[in-house]
């Protein structure tokens, strides 16, 4: 890439990438917690809930990488007790389980308590309670587990990481192709103006913006399209 405005823009983005990543992650995590549990976005950004969510999701990511543990090659190792030397998976799984329980139970319990006191914003959990009335313990557990999947970052319940990936891909595309950014900004200025933010009612009036969104998702898919898999029966293939 020759030295010039595009090079400067890429260098600036590179040198501040850590700041961008932090801000995008906080925005995505706090927004999803607000949607699921009704937390104040401005308050939840640096709360213990975002910390617990990141810890739990880091465990999910590590466990989903094929070949990370010896048990991927020797399945019978999953029956070894955690006190046996070398049983790292069992020890790590216990930590991950505790992190996941904090992720599932903590925010839900806080929202349920606030709902009883009448001090929670509308969200997924409150909507479920309103529609189900006075649910029994099984239904309540289902609401708790379902709301937990909303903030899970791995497929099929992708939200946090997929949002972060899509946004960072968008930033990269706008830096690489500034001419399209100018066209998109022109459409926003023409349709929306400078006195408000766009909302979903403007979607049909912003075809170029919608095309950019679709292209970002097509250009760099946020979900893995080929998952690791294996056959559960022995097969012999003839060359």
TrEMBL record:
Key word rRNA processing present: no
Pathway info: Secondary metabolite biosynthesis
Q: Does the keyword Transmembrane helix apply?
A: no
What cofactor is needed? heme
A Pfam family (short name) is p450
| UniProt KW keywords | Heme, Iron, Metal-binding, Monooxygenase, Oxidoreductase
User: Per UniProt, what is one GO molecular function of this protein?
Assistant: oxidoreductase activity, acting on paired donors, with incorporation or reduction of molecular oxygen
Protein family per UniProt: Belongs to the cytochrome P450 family.
What name is this protein filed under? Cytochrome P450
The record lists the organism as Gymnopus androsaceus JB14
